[in-house]
Amino acid sequence: xxxxxxxxxxxxxxxxxxxxxxxxxxxxxxxxxxxxxxxxxxxxxxxxxxxxxxxxxxxxxxxxxxxxxxxxxxxxxxxxxxxxxxxxxxxxxxxxxxxxxxxxxxxxxxxxxxxxxxxxxxxxxxxxxxxxxx
Length: 134
Hints:
Layout: H1 3-24, H2 32-53, H3 60-71, H4 81-89, H5 96-133
């Protein structure tokens, strides 16, 4: 296996891990801090870096991954990693618009869930501190 092929596999599974962290790690108290960091890095990529390159929703991970795939001779890659995942791992073909909608919806739900769970945790801690002080 060449270095580029190893990088391709590592980036694919890292990207999948980022998606899993963003969508699920808010659920467990011990992993919430990881999700908060990763989802905010995702927001920075999609919004700030996206604005800088002229494409909201820009993902630097996909950009680097696609550059590696081009070096490996792969062409005709979709703009969306989600579309790529659907084409590679499922029999379903999704449009770029559907994939973008799914990604944005998942992101918003995960971000809101993260903030709600953090607020509830903060409120619980504040209540415990008040009870100890009394």
